[in-house]
Amino acid sequence: MASSAVNNPNPQSISALLNRLGDADPDFRFMSLNDLHQILTKQKVDFLNHDYNTSSRMVDAVVKALDDQNGEVQNLAVKCIGPLVPKLPLTVLAPMLEKLSMVQLKNSVDNSIPALALRSAISSLPRPVRGVTPSREVIDTYTVISRTLIPRVLGIPTPSNGPKQSTGEPSGLLDQNRNPTAESVDVLIEVVLCFGPLLQPLEVEKLQDVVVEVLERKTTPSPVKKRAVVALAILAPYLTTEVLDGFIAKLQKALRQPKLSPVMRRLYISIMGSLARSIPRKFGEYLPQLIELVLSPLNQEELQSQLDALSEGNDELHPEFNEVRETALVTLESFLASCGLQMRDYTDEIIAACLRYLKFDPNYAVDEDEDMDENEDDDGSEEDEDDEFDDGVGFDDDDDASWKVRRCAAKALYTLISTRSTDLLEKGILYNNVAPALVKKFDEREESVRLEIISTVALLIRKTGEGVIKPTSENEELLHSLGDNRKRRRQSSGGITYTNKAPYLGATGITSPTRETVPPTGPRADLQKLTPQIVKSATKLLKGKQIATKQAIVNLLDDLIAVQPGGLADYFDQVMQPIIDVTKGMTGGTSSTSMALSGAASATAITLRVAVLNFTSDIAKTHSSSLFQRYLESIVAGVVSAVRDRFYKVSSEAIRTAEELVKAVTPPRARHTIQKYRPELQKLYEIIMDRASASDADTEVRQKAIQALGTLISRTSSPDGIALIPPEKRQAALNLLLDRLRNETTRLYAVRAIDNVAAHSSTSGSLEPAWIEQVALELCSQLRKSNRALRGASIQALQHLILSPVTKGQIQAATAKEVVDAILPVIAGNDTYLLSPALLVVAQLQLEHPQIASSPAFIDSLCELLKKNVTGIALESLVTLVNNAGSSGMGKPLMEGVLRVGVAGDPTVVGKVAGALFVASGGKVGVTVESFVDELSKASRLSPPDTARQSLALAILGEIGLRLGAKSGLKPSIFLEQFHDEPDKVSVSAAVALGRAGAGNMSVFLPTILNAIKKPGSQQYLLLQSIREILHQATASSTDIRSYENEIWQLLFSASQLDDNRAICAECIGRLAIMEPKTYIPKLQELLRDPSPVFRGVAVQALRYTLPDSDEPFDVMLKTVLFDMLLTVLKDEDREIRRLGMTALNSAAHNKPDLILPHLGELVPYVIHESVIKQELIREVQMGPFKHLVDDGLEVRKSAYETLYALMETAFSRVSSLEFYDRIIAGLNDENDIRSLCNLMLSKLIVIDPEETTRRLDTIAECYRKTLSTKLRDGAVKQEVEKQEEAIKSVLRVTLLLVEKTKTTLPSAPTGAGGIAQGQSVQNPVWQQYWEWVNKDFERQLKALRDENKEMAM
Prior knowledge:
There is one protein chain. The protein is mainly alpha-helical and 1354 residues long. It contains 64 helices and 2 strands. It has a two-stranded antiparallel sheet. The chain is globular and about 110 Å long. The chain starts with a helix and ends with a helix. Mean pLDDT is 82; it is low at 161-170, 366-396, 469-508, 587-601 and 1308-1322.
């Protein structure tokens, strides 16, 4: 019967279920209600919407079940409310809400049931969405809420829509006669959360009045008052300005009453904190009026009066005193987090108040004037201090809540540092006033306070290092390892030179780290002065018994050495012995009962052990190897023990530490003390080999062990280190790597380890020929795998292996052929990431086995490659390959293939390859220079001319001229004859070829070009192209052209008068400045103040072109003038010059951040100013019958946002985050291009500064909702539709990222809706509502984006 009713519900079956709800047996009632719940949740019960009688009976039955004697039936009745409500007709909904609000429980002890049911009902109703026009259904639902439920909340009598009520009708939910509960306030919160956008101003005002009345009622319990404060915060966004003004005035008046009770004072102050979090923008306007009311409870006078009262034995108000101060500090923290800009004027008062109460401990006598710099000979007292400190853990005084005040003071300082570090660090306020007091309080007896203080100091240290910490992550080290030096040219030649470095496996640690020089002044100098006090206090805490404290201290010291590499060198003995003792003392995994750092997981022996290992690893990375000598045996013993730990996180971290220790005790870092470390190195070798070969070890542990093994073998492959590991052990390790290369789970890490070994092996005979060949073939087999990371690592390892000097002559011809055959498909595939190493491998093998270049498959693959787009490093590698082929006498068949490709490929690429091959072969390729000249002439005489053949011939001749110089016999006239009046394809090819040939034969070509360029005309632009190519080649090859420089300089400025020439002239001027900085940088500086905007613009562009393409002497010259040049340009009166100035600053941020970092405080305000929309630059233009708005400031604004993006990536810590975020939020409402850029910035800011991004979520939600709700006009063109779709996709993509990073969740069930109010709603209610709306209205797009993200992750 029940099954039939569930599967095929109808009025009759439901009526039968309702009848059984009155059964005396609770099991029958429960089963009937459960069947009803299944019908409501799993079936479409459409008939309820039209069947008034069945709906009414169902409502009566479920409401009656709320007062059932059985608790399980009650809970199930609450669960039924949510799915039932949306299926009811509106005529039944109103009576149902009225009944729920008037339920009087007689059989239940849980009085929260009616409120839970009511909240479930409200959250299940159709609700409005901000920024979206509400539907008819939503409006009708709101009307029911407005007429039925809101009057019940307010206690206003309403005509009953339901059955006749008794004469004693219940009062309002929050009426003073009813003793309102926290659940009743939650009903009001649910109404506002769900229907806030539709509430009328009068309704909002009355709801606020009733909440305030609840707050001010003396009989109201404390939990209810707390929920009422939350309710006020949720109501705040809907209050009109007048009502809010009145409420703030009421708060002010109440707080200024002389006889205000501590309880009410605390309540009013907490309300201000909630309002600041809820409506930060609006509340910021009132802050100047209110800040004194929050600071007054924290002043010295009130504290002194309380202390005096305590000293006289009058402690009646002691608990209230603590609670008021705690609330004031929490509110102050809210002000700092939400209204940071408005709080800047009160920084000194805030710091003073926080420090005052950081020391507030009336039950603990301490000399406040105690000097931190105690005598150094107090070692004997340390044990006593530790004992006293440990006893403090058991401190038991139920009446003492002063620790809460101290903790809140520390938290407020934490927030101040996180939001204001940029300016306060530069002024020295944090280190002069705040840091010493915090370090002094490391001996705090309450652990939760102590952890908060340590966390605050750690944050200050991290903020000090932001912008100057050298990259140490694997990705950064990979980038660092790809080239030895900064290349002078834009296109890197790293692909065609053998670099003795392997990526992936961390910093090579070639030299022993030296102590970094600290600037004489500034935050880092202040930190260095404070370091002795930090170390002294930290080492005392390391000797204690509290696991959480020790872990926090270890992490703090880790932060310290990250900011100041080598910073603990002077205190090494003080630090390392306690660290080793900590390691020895950890035997189990018992959890610490103490509270952990803010937001962190609780500390255990395991997490402490991982922290110690991480610190050991970092200190080995950043400190000299000689410092370790005394402690190495103990350190290694601890690490070996940790590697054997059963818990994989400890074991894997220990292996990483072992790898760093290997780097520290092997040459060249430890060249002079090499034999002293040999026993420890053997121990590390044994344990790493054991873990790498163990089949029962965790996969992550094995992978880390393989990586460490690769590092160990590579670091002992030099002549200095080859004797450290016996040959048989070395070969066993190499064989293990080969074995792991064949295992799927460890394959990628084995490839990277082999890469490291191959890159650093320099001793002849250190790698056996058989092993080399087997590894080479195995790596080739990986190139066919689908895993892109594996393919990339394999080709990189193969490059290092084949190019290694150890491998030279060790690969047999048959193996070489197999390797080339495996690589040819990679070359044909033209994968940019794999192409350059693949070409270099073949180039090296071709040198050893020349016959490779003659095979048809090889030639065909290269010819197919030439037909595709090859640029940059891949092209340079290709040229290296053909050079090798030509020099080995195999150029003729290859040249035939290249010429067969001909115009099927890019003439520039084919020309460069053919020209290089011709010169490398000594001209013995079956063609001559005259052949190409004749080809050019024939193609020119055709009608119409064959432009592709002309361009190809010109490119070949230009390359030959560059490489052969005067020996080529080429004359300028050959190229000049191809110049046409209009700069078409052939003319541009001729200009570039003329420049390349001229770079090889300056004395003949350059005078001709300079004479021709003096003649005004259409060919001037083409000749400038030639000049640019000559200067480019001269810069790359350091050719001396000083005799022509002055003439070129004059000609360039003369030619720059024409708009078309300006950009190329600026680039040429920039190249001249790079070549002779002492001569031309001062000239550029003068031109920036030239009366002519043309010359100023050219000078700015020239400066921008120099920034990515410079070398060390140029940087030294530029360092003294770059800031003045940028500042001059950003102050320019011409809008276009300012735009160019911002592009130059953008380039400087990317390429030379160290030159501008100290001056960003003066430069950034100009960029911020340019990012603001200027109404005076927006004008109306008549276009036929239509009027169109044109924003003349848009391009400047775009440049400003692009510059902010560059600064965010390179120097975010030096930019005031509050103003920066304000501009990002403003940009979300700007033009489409700026919106896209701001979305990109937000996606990175959630990682860079998650705290401030989280605080701004509500404002972001408003902007995003506006974008997603934009409706295109009828008849919108295709481009507009595509632009809007892309904007929506961009917004949704960032929304998904923000949701993931901030852990935003949807309500799991209607009954859990109240959880929103209790959780995230106070901080981000708008964001929560926005996320629910997006999930509902953009479900399809979100699913597509999630699928796309999964594919990218794979």
